[in-house]
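Continuing the batch. This is chain 6 of the set; chains 1 through 5 are on the previous pages. Same settings as before, nothing changed between runs. Recording input and output for traceability.
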Amino acid sequence: MREAWQVVRAALHDAWGDLLTTTLVNMMWLGLTLPLVTAPPATLALFAVGNRLAHGEPTDPRDFLPALGRYFGVGWRWGALQLVVLALLAGDLVLSGRLAGDSVAGRLVQGFYLAALAIWLLLQLYVLAFLCEQQEPSLRTALRNGALILGNNLVFSTTLGLLVLLALILGTVFFFVSIAAGGVFLALVGSHAVLNRLAAHQRQTRRLSAGRGSDDPLRAEKPPSFRSRDS
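Output for chain 6:
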Protein backbone atom coordinates (compact mmCIF):
# COMPACT_ATOMS: atom_id res chain seq x y z
CA MET A 1 0.00 0.00 0.00
CA ARG A 2 2.88 2.35 0.78
CA GLU A 3 4.33 2.12 -2.74
CA ALA A 4 0.91 2.69 -4.33
CA TRP A 5 0.54 5.83 -2.24
CA GLN A 6 4.02 6.95 -3.30
CA VAL A 7 2.93 6.63 -6.94
CA VAL A 8 -0.19 8.76 -6.38
CA ARG A 9 1.79 11.31 -4.38
CA ALA A 10 4.44 11.55 -7.12
CA ALA A 11 1.68 12.06 -9.71
CA LEU A 12 0.11 14.84 -7.65
CA HIS A 13 3.53 16.43 -7.13
CA ASP A 14 4.33 16.45 -10.86
CA ALA A 15 0.88 17.74 -11.83
CA TRP A 16 1.11 20.58 -9.31
CA GLY A 17 4.78 21.27 -10.00
CA ASP A 18 4.08 22.27 -13.61
CA LEU A 19 0.52 23.47 -13.29
CA LEU A 20 0.57 25.54 -16.49
CA THR A 21 1.58 22.56 -18.63
CA THR A 22 -0.85 20.33 -16.75
CA THR A 23 -3.79 22.66 -17.35
CA LEU A 24 -3.07 23.49 -21.00
CA VAL A 25 -2.37 19.88 -21.98
CA ASN A 26 -5.47 18.70 -20.15
CA MET A 27 -7.61 21.28 -21.95
CA MET A 28 -6.17 20.30 -25.35
CA TRP A 29 -6.84 16.66 -24.56
CA LEU A 30 -10.44 17.38 -23.55
CA GLY A 31 -11.00 19.35 -26.76
CA LEU A 32 -9.57 16.58 -28.94
CA THR A 33 -11.66 13.88 -27.27
CA LEU A 34 -14.83 15.47 -28.63
CA PRO A 35 -14.19 14.42 -32.26
CA LEU A 36 -14.11 10.61 -32.27
CA VAL A 37 -11.31 10.46 -34.83
CA THR A 38 -8.81 12.22 -32.55
CA ALA A 39 -9.88 10.86 -29.14
CA PRO A 40 -7.67 7.71 -28.97
CA PRO A 41 -4.44 9.32 -30.27
CA ALA A 42 -5.10 12.35 -28.05
CA THR A 43 -5.19 10.00 -25.06
CA LEU A 44 -1.84 8.50 -26.13
CA ALA A 45 -0.42 12.01 -26.53
CA LEU A 46 -1.67 12.86 -23.04
CA PHE A 47 0.18 9.85 -21.64
CA ALA A 48 3.29 10.79 -23.64
CA VAL A 49 3.36 14.16 -21.89
CA GLY A 50 2.76 12.42 -18.57
CA ASN A 51 5.65 10.09 -19.36
CA ARG A 52 8.01 13.03 -19.90
CA LEU A 53 6.89 14.69 -16.67
CA ALA A 54 7.30 11.44 -14.72
CA HIS A 55 10.86 11.09 -16.03
CA GLY A 56 11.65 14.66 -15.01
CA GLU A 57 12.27 15.75 -18.60
CA PRO A 58 11.73 19.38 -19.69
CA THR A 59 8.11 19.46 -20.83
CA ASP A 60 5.72 22.11 -22.09
CA PRO A 61 2.36 22.12 -23.90
CA ARG A 62 4.11 22.15 -27.30
CA ASP A 63 5.09 18.50 -26.74
CA PHE A 64 1.45 17.45 -27.02
CA LEU A 65 0.83 17.98 -30.75
CA PRO A 66 3.95 16.12 -32.01
CA ALA A 67 2.96 13.21 -29.76
CA LEU A 68 -0.51 13.28 -31.31
CA GLY A 69 0.99 12.62 -34.73
CA ARG A 70 3.47 10.03 -33.45
CA TYR A 71 0.79 7.95 -31.74
CA PHE A 72 -2.06 8.46 -34.22
CA GLY A 73 -1.89 4.96 -35.73
CA VAL A 74 -1.30 2.96 -32.56
CA GLY A 75 -3.76 5.22 -30.78
CA TRP A 76 -6.52 4.19 -33.12
CA ARG A 77 -5.61 0.51 -32.79
CA TRP A 78 -5.84 0.93 -29.04
CA GLY A 79 -9.11 2.83 -29.40
CA ALA A 80 -10.65 0.15 -31.62
CA LEU A 81 -9.76 -2.48 -29.03
CA GLN A 82 -11.41 -0.39 -26.33
CA LEU A 83 -14.61 -0.08 -28.35
CA VAL A 84 -14.85 -3.84 -28.78
CA VAL A 85 -13.97 -4.85 -25.22
CA LEU A 86 -15.99 -2.15 -23.48
CA ALA A 87 -19.01 -2.80 -25.69
CA LEU A 88 -18.88 -6.51 -24.89
CA LEU A 89 -18.43 -6.04 -21.15
CA ALA A 90 -21.04 -3.28 -20.84
CA GLY A 91 -23.47 -5.22 -23.04
CA ASP A 92 -23.05 -8.40 -21.00
CA LEU A 93 -23.43 -6.43 -17.77
CA VAL A 94 -26.74 -4.91 -18.88
CA LEU A 95 -28.02 -8.09 -20.53
CA SER A 96 -27.26 -10.31 -17.53
CA GLY A 97 -29.13 -7.89 -15.29
CA ARG A 98 -32.22 -7.94 -17.50
CA LEU A 99 -32.27 -11.71 -17.98
CA ALA A 100 -31.57 -12.74 -14.39
CA GLY A 101 -33.47 -9.95 -12.67
CA ASP A 102 -32.91 -9.73 -8.91
CA SER A 103 -31.83 -13.34 -8.44
CA VAL A 104 -28.64 -14.19 -6.57
CA ALA A 105 -27.18 -15.78 -9.69
CA GLY A 106 -27.92 -12.64 -11.67
CA ARG A 107 -26.19 -10.46 -9.09
CA LEU A 108 -23.15 -12.74 -9.14
CA VAL A 109 -22.93 -12.61 -12.92
CA GLN A 110 -23.27 -8.84 -12.90
CA GLY A 111 -20.59 -8.64 -10.22
CA PHE A 112 -18.28 -10.71 -12.41
CA TYR A 113 -18.71 -8.44 -15.41
CA LEU A 114 -18.37 -5.33 -13.25
CA ALA A 115 -15.10 -6.67 -11.80
CA ALA A 116 -13.87 -7.55 -15.31
CA LEU A 117 -14.67 -4.01 -16.45
CA ALA A 118 -12.77 -2.50 -13.51
CA ILE A 119 -9.75 -4.75 -14.16
CA TRP A 120 -9.74 -3.84 -17.84
CA LEU A 121 -9.83 -0.11 -17.11
CA LEU A 122 -7.03 -0.45 -14.54
CA LEU A 123 -4.99 -2.43 -17.06
CA GLN A 124 -5.19 0.49 -19.49
CA LEU A 125 -3.17 2.69 -17.12
CA TYR A 126 -0.28 0.26 -17.53
CA VAL A 127 -0.84 -0.33 -21.25
CA LEU A 128 -0.84 3.36 -22.16
CA ALA A 129 2.20 4.04 -19.99
CA PHE A 130 4.08 1.13 -21.56
CA LEU A 131 3.28 2.37 -25.07
CA CYS A 132 5.02 5.64 -24.19
CA GLU A 133 8.04 3.79 -22.76
CA GLN A 134 8.67 1.92 -26.01
CA GLN A 135 10.97 3.16 -28.74
CA GLU A 136 8.63 1.61 -31.33
CA PRO A 137 5.08 1.55 -29.90
CA SER A 138 3.65 -1.98 -30.00
CA LEU A 139 0.14 -2.53 -28.65
CA ARG A 140 0.65 -6.28 -28.30
CA THR A 141 3.83 -5.81 -26.25
CA ALA A 142 2.21 -3.13 -24.10
CA LEU A 143 -0.79 -5.37 -23.41
CA ARG A 144 1.46 -8.27 -22.46
CA ASN A 145 3.67 -6.18 -20.18
CA GLY A 146 0.68 -4.46 -18.61
CA ALA A 147 -1.00 -7.80 -17.90
CA LEU A 148 2.21 -9.12 -16.33
CA ILE A 149 2.50 -6.12 -14.02
CA LEU A 150 -1.17 -6.32 -13.08
CA GLY A 151 -1.08 -10.07 -12.47
CA ASN A 152 2.17 -10.04 -10.51
CA ASN A 153 1.25 -7.03 -8.36
CA LEU A 154 -2.38 -7.58 -7.39
CA VAL A 155 -2.18 -5.87 -4.00
CA PHE A 156 -0.28 -2.89 -5.42
CA SER A 157 -2.67 -2.59 -8.39
CA THR A 158 -5.83 -2.93 -6.28
CA THR A 159 -4.60 -0.33 -3.80
CA LEU A 160 -3.57 1.97 -6.63
CA GLY A 161 -6.97 1.61 -8.28
CA LEU A 162 -8.78 2.48 -5.04
CA LEU A 163 -6.56 5.51 -4.43
CA VAL A 164 -7.10 6.75 -7.99
CA LEU A 165 -10.86 6.24 -7.62
CA LEU A 166 -10.83 8.24 -4.39
CA ALA A 167 -8.82 11.02 -6.04
CA LEU A 168 -11.23 11.14 -8.98
CA ILE A 169 -14.23 11.30 -6.64
CA LEU A 170 -12.65 14.21 -4.78
CA GLY A 171 -11.83 15.83 -8.12
CA THR A 172 -15.47 15.50 -9.15
CA VAL A 173 -16.55 17.29 -5.99
CA PHE A 174 -14.16 20.10 -6.92
CA PHE A 175 -15.26 20.18 -10.56
CA PHE A 176 -12.61 22.56 -11.87
CA VAL A 177 -9.83 20.36 -10.49
CA SER A 178 -10.92 17.51 -12.77
CA ILE A 179 -11.24 19.84 -15.75
CA ALA A 180 -7.80 21.34 -15.17
CA ALA A 181 -5.78 18.27 -14.24
CA GLY A 182 -7.79 15.02 -14.25
CA GLY A 183 -6.43 13.52 -17.46
CA VAL A 184 -2.80 14.46 -16.83
CA PHE A 185 -3.09 13.09 -13.29
CA LEU A 186 -4.18 9.69 -14.65
CA ALA A 187 -1.33 9.74 -17.18
CA LEU A 188 1.15 10.51 -14.42
CA VAL A 189 -0.25 7.74 -12.22
CA GLY A 190 0.18 5.24 -15.06
CA SER A 191 3.72 6.37 -15.84
CA HIS A 192 4.86 6.43 -12.22
CA ALA A 193 3.23 3.05 -11.56
CA VAL A 194 5.09 1.42 -14.46
CA LEU A 195 8.40 3.03 -13.43
CA ASN A 196 7.82 1.93 -9.84
CA ARG A 197 7.11 -1.69 -10.78
CA LEU A 198 10.02 -1.83 -13.25
CA ALA A 199 12.37 -0.53 -10.55
CA ALA A 200 11.02 -3.11 -8.08
CA HIS A 201 11.52 -5.88 -10.65
CA GLN A 202 15.08 -4.77 -11.34
CA ARG A 203 15.88 -4.74 -7.61
CA GLN A 204 14.48 -8.26 -7.26
CA THR A 205 16.45 -9.43 -10.30
CA ARG A 206 19.68 -8.03 -8.88
CA ARG A 207 19.09 -9.79 -5.56
CA LEU A 208 18.40 -13.09 -7.31
CA SER A 209 21.42 -12.62 -9.55
CA ALA A 210 23.67 -11.93 -6.58
CA GLY A 211 22.39 -15.07 -4.87
CA ARG A 212 22.78 -17.35 -7.88
CA GLY A 213 26.06 -16.07 -9.26
CA SER A 214 27.21 -14.72 -12.58
CA ASP A 215 25.61 -17.53 -14.59
CA ASP A 216 22.12 -16.70 -13.41
CA PRO A 217 19.80 -16.70 -16.46
CA LEU A 218 17.72 -13.96 -14.84
CA ARG A 219 20.50 -11.49 -15.58
CA ALA A 220 18.88 -10.41 -18.80
CA GLU A 221 19.15 -7.08 -20.50
CA LYS A 222 16.26 -4.67 -20.51
CA PRO A 223 13.69 -5.75 -23.10
CA PRO A 224 14.15 -3.88 -26.39
CA SER A 225 10.56 -2.64 -26.26
CA PHE A 226 11.51 -0.19 -23.50
CA ARG A 227 13.19 3.09 -24.29
CA SER A 228 16.52 3.57 -22.56
CA ARG A 229 16.75 6.91 -20.78
CA ASP A 230 20.52 6.73 -20.58
CA SER A 231 21.17 6.54 -24.33
